[in-house]
Amino acid sequence: MYFSLSIYTKRRLDGKIVIITGGASGIGAEAARLFTDQGAKVVIVDIQEELGRNVAVSIGKERASFYRCDITEETQVENAVKFTVEKHGKLDVLFSNAGILDPRGSILDLDLDRFDRIMAVNVRGAAAFIKHAARVMVEKGTRGSIVCTTSVSSEIGGGRRHGYTASKHGLLGLIRTACGELGKYGIRVNGVAPYALATPLTSHDEETARQVEEEFAAKGVLKGVVLNARHVAQVALFLASDESVYVSGQNLAVDGGYSMCRSVNVQI
User: Fold this and answer.
1) In the annotation, is 164 catalytic?
2) Which of 95, 117, 123, 135 is the most exposed place for a label (fewest CB within 10 A)?
3) Hey, what domains does the chain have and what are their CATH numbers?
4) How far apart are CA 193 and CA 118, in angstroms?
5) Residue of 67, 164, 195, 258 marked catalytic
């Protein structure tokens, strides 16, 4: 039996062009650093201009660039994809990672304006990027990879974050339908579903981050390790790379078993 080790002896994204949305901080920034370390050139897309430019500069202008984009505006999304293709000639990977969170609250007091905003960013924004990225991949005959950051909240309920949970369920549905259509072009579509972790989305300073980590670690199933942005970025790297060449339509949990065990962790 012949087994090639070449995939493990070279950088995993050599020559790949990648768009990362929400790349100015958190999981997206970690992915930008990790992907470029593995040979990719990345375009960091975010509405946070100063942070995004700083991440790109820290990586180096030969490997990373920044494009400011409000992902709720389709024209801006289309222009971000055009910018990438004009700069690099192609697009191999979309890591659709941008998202926002709503506060916990009762469904009886649901703020529908805030709900609409969350759906616009977390679902509509992702849909717009999938649409325009896939168009380019199809036009150029690129067997690309589309990876979306979902959440454990895409598979389970609870938590009283109604807008966020609804949006992540919707995003997972989008991943599955896009997978079914784009497979004939050799384009893979997957989700990466992290457990709760301390990022700028959930904490605003070091003290809050420490408290968030302690809370989530206490509730988590897998002990002895605290989930961080790098862990999630590493799974996104796997889905972006040719190591996952026959993986599509999946929602790969990075949750230490939480979503599998949560329903049975009830004392009877």
Assistant:
1) yes
2) 135
3) 12-256 (3.40.50.720)
4) 18
5) 164
